[in-house]
Every structure is written in C-alpha cells, then in structure tokens.
Design brief:
By secondary structure, this protein is an alpha+beta fold. It folds into three domains: 83 residues, no CATH class; 108 residues, Beta Barrel (Butyryl-CoA Dehydrogenase, subunit A, domain 2); 149 residues, Up-down Bundle (Butyryl-CoA Dehydrogenase, subunit A, domain 3), CATH 1.20.140. Strands 2-3-7-6 form a four-stranded antiparallel sheet, with no helix packed on it. A three-stranded mixed sheet has the order 1-4-5, with helices on one face. It is globular, with a radius of gyration of 22 Å. Bound molecules: flavin-adenine dinucleotide. Flavin-adenine dinucleotide binds next to strand 1 and helix 12.
Length: 394
C-alpha cells in the first residue's frame, strides 16, 4: 500500500490551500487561532463560503451537493482547513443529518432540508443521549407515539450540543416499546421552537455553554418527519458510524497544533525563555509530531481499506489515539504559552504577562479544558477500547 500522496493529491492540496487563502476571512482565522469556540454565526459564514464553491458537504453523494472527492481528498481538505485555522463546519447537520437523509430520507425530507443545511440555514442538534442512556444508548426512553398523521414525542435528552442555537433536533426515540431495545428505535426530526421543547443550559469544564438538557413534552410532529421506515433508527445510527470512520482522529486540529507550536517556542525563547526550557519543549513537540504523523498514516490506512468487520474498531482506535494526542498537544501549548494562555475577562485580570509577550491566546486554556470532552463524546474512551477488544482480540 502506498501511503504517500500522489501528484494529483498534492495538486489538489494546493488547490484547497489556494482557495482557503483567498476566501477565509482573516479576522475569522485569527479568532479561531486564539482558541475561542466558534459560535453559530462564524461557522455559518464559513460554511456559506464553502457552499458557494460546492465544498460544504464533501461526504454527500454528488447528486445531493457532494464533491465526489475520494476519501483521501476529503482527508486532505480537512487537514488544510485545520492548518489554515478555518472554523469547523456544523458537523451534526453536514456529517450526520445530511448523510442519513441522503441515504434513508424520503424525497420530501430531502427536498425540505438538504439545501437549507448546505446553506447553513437549517441547523441541527443531535438528541440521542439521555440521563440513563449514554454508553448504553439502546436503553433510551424517549417515546415517539403515532397519533393519526403525527408522532407525539415525550422524553428527556442531555448533553445536546448546540441545542440552544439549533433550529431542529434529529431525535432518536423509541417507536416500538415491545421490540428488543435496538429494534424499536427511530430517528425523527423535531423543530426546536415547538412549545413542547424546553432547553436548559449546562456549563462545561471550560466555563462555556455548548451543551444542554432538552425536555420534550408532547412535541407533535408530522409522521413524514420520521426518517426511513419506523424502527430502523439503529441501522441508521450504525450507517453513520461506518460513514465517518476517520473524522474523530481530529487530524485537522492536530496538524494545526503541530505546525504552530515551534513558532511559539521560538517566540518565547526570543522573549527570554531559558534555552534549556525551550529545548525541553522542542523535545516534547518532536515526540508529539512523530505520534501525529503515525496517526496520519493510520488514518490513510483506514481510508485505503474497504469498510468491513473491523471498520468500527479502526474508527475507535483513531478516536482514542486522536483524543489523547489532542490533549497532549493542547497541554504542551499551555506549557509554552504560560500566563499568556490564561483566560482574561478584563484588562487587569489574570497573572501579569511577561515582558515582550507576543502570543497572548486566552482561548487556549478553555480549548484545552474542552478537549477532555473528546474522550467522552461520540463514545467514551472505555467504550471505544471495548469495541477494539471485541473486534481484535476475541
Ligand atoms: C461535550 C459533550 C458533547 C456531547 N454532545 C452530544 C450531543 O450533541 N448529542 C448527544 O446525543 N450526546 C452528546 N454527548 C453525550 C455523549 O455521547 C455521552 O456523554 C457518552 O456517550 C457517554 O455517556 P454518558 O455520559 O451517559 O456516560 P455513561 O454511559 O454513564 O458512562 C459513565 C462512565 O462509565 C464508563 N462506562 C460505561 N459503560 C461502560 C462499559 N460497558 N465498559 C466500560 N466502561 C463503561 C464510561 O466510559 C464512562 O467513563 C456529548 C457529551 C459531551 C461530553
């Protein structure tokens, strides 16, 4: 297997780099580089720019607005966006809802949602997890009960990213309480502005508001909002897992860290950091860079392989390794930046900056704290390790 990029792939990377250089607004990239979480307006602006070029949804089928890129081209695109400090697009809409609608949705649902998702006018949150159903998702209790031409949805979702800014929820609900747990689930689309929807914020470790509890109290939606056949929600969820096998390696973000840390060390040394300390930081960076490169090779190997019995285990391995590398990268960056990375809420807030400090990046501490969530969302570390164990060692 050849793991190097071909001449065509290198040319493609050049094309992507050129497009980003010409089109990514500088203030947007600067804010992203500071480590601040991208809010809806910023993400939407970037997504619209990509959409005008036809690049908002690389993983969708071409007939629905996809790019027709190979998996390696999609990887290159993610990497270049990461390196250029582009904000991440709205992944729940573009990488979850869109592909599920393209594969399982009725023509009416596709007609209604695909274009607005591409244009960033329809913003989705993912309502899967519940207080007693996270790792053991199939035990969820939210019910969608058929009532004439509608479904009536009642339940309690939690950890719902972007629930406070989303227009719609893709909700996993029980439609057949008699069937075995996985067999009785369906995906259904709910409007977040329904009067039966209550959103309560949850503050995360980084002090920010990304996630929510969502209470669903008699939310009535047309039966046509159910995706595919009733009770096939688990199949759709598994399809998603197989579809996005490598994204959770966080390569775009990792490449960004690996690329920028040496410059930060140089700047700190020039500003007075003792040479011995700078050298120790460079060694840590070299070890990280080697591991990130090894991870990149793993990603390319997974992309080159056919989806098969071990695909889920490969995705899990990339996710565990990617999240750990991300934490190491963010931790190293804090070690380099020291007080410059401390969040400040006013001019006199936080420890004094060293003389000559150039790289003040207060968002990077919050970003480091947020990355701990990467060991949980999309399936916790322990669950991923269990999947690997079952696939590889049993
Ligand atoms: C920042 C963030 C954003 C999120 N966004 C969303 C979202 O948008 N939509 C959504 O639906 N969900 C979201 N989640 C929820 C996420 O998917 C769940 O938190 C995750 O699946 C774990 O479930 P849980 O929190 O219920 O923990 P539990 O399942 O209760 O697990 C608790 C602990 O027990 C361990 N554990 C559980 N079962 C096993 C086992 N069989 N073997 C070994 N160890 C086990 C887990 O690893 C964990 O350490 C988000 C979570 C976070 C942190």
């Amino acid at each position: 297997m050849n793991l190097a990029f071909s001449a065509e792939e290198k040319a493609f990377a050049e094309e992507v780099r050129g497009f980003i250089a010409d089109n990514l607004p500088a203030p947007m990239a600067a804010r992203e580089a500071m480590g601040f979480h991208a809010e809806r307006a910023r993400v939407a602006e970037w997504q619209r720019i990509l959409n005008r070029r036809g690049w908002a949804a690389p993983s969708w089928p071409v007939e629905h607005g996809g790019t027709g890129w190979t998996p390696v081209q999609r990887y290159i695109f993610e990497r270049e966006c990461g390196l250029a400090n582009a904000p991440e697009v709205n992944l729940i809409s573009l990488s979850m809802v869109g592909p599920v609608l393209c594969r399982f949705g009725s023509p009416a649902l596709r007609e209604r949602f695909l274009e607005p998702i591409l244009r960033s006018d329809a913003w989705f949150c993912q309502g899967f997890s519940e207080p007693e159903a996270g790792s053991d998702l199939a035990s969820l209790r939210t019910r969608a009960v058929r009532d004439g031409n509608d479904y009536v949805v009642d339940g309690h979702k939690i950890w719902t990213t972007d629930g406070h800014v989303a227009d719609f929820m893709i909700c996993l609900a029980r439609t057949d309480p008699e069937a075995r747990p996985q067999a009785g689930l369906s995906m259904i689309i709910l409007p977040m502005d329904d009067r039966g929807v209550t959103v309560r914020p949850i503050r995360t470790l980084d002090g920010d508001h990304h996630i929510n509890e969502v209470f669903l109290d008699g939310v009535r939606v047309p039966a046509g909002n159910l995706i595919g056949e009733p009770n096939t929600g688990w199949t759709q969820a598994k399809y998603l897992l197989a579809h996005e096998r490598t994204h959770n390696a966080y390569m775009g973000m990792l490449c960004r860290y690996v690329a920028r840390i040496p410059g930060l060390v140089d700047a700190e040394e020039a500003a007075g950091l003792p040479a011995g300390q700078a050298e120790a930081l460079r060694r840590r960076h070299a070890r990280l860079a080697i591991d990130v490169e090894a991870l990149e090779w793993s990603v390319l190997r997974v992309l080159a392989a056919e989806p098969g019995a071990r695909a889920a285990a490969s995705a899990s391995a990339l996710s565990v390794r990617g999240a750990r590398c991300l934490l190491r990268a963010a931790d190293l960056e804090l070690a380099v930046l020291g007080p410059q990375a401390v969040p400040r809420f006013g001019p006199d807030d936080g420890p004094p900056l060293p003389a000559g400090a150039t790289a003040a990046a207060p968002g990077r501490t919050t970003q480091y704290l947020y990355w701990w969530a990467a060991t949980i969302f999309g399936g916790s570390d322990e669950i991923q390790r269990g999947i690997i164990w079952n696939a590889v060692f049993r």
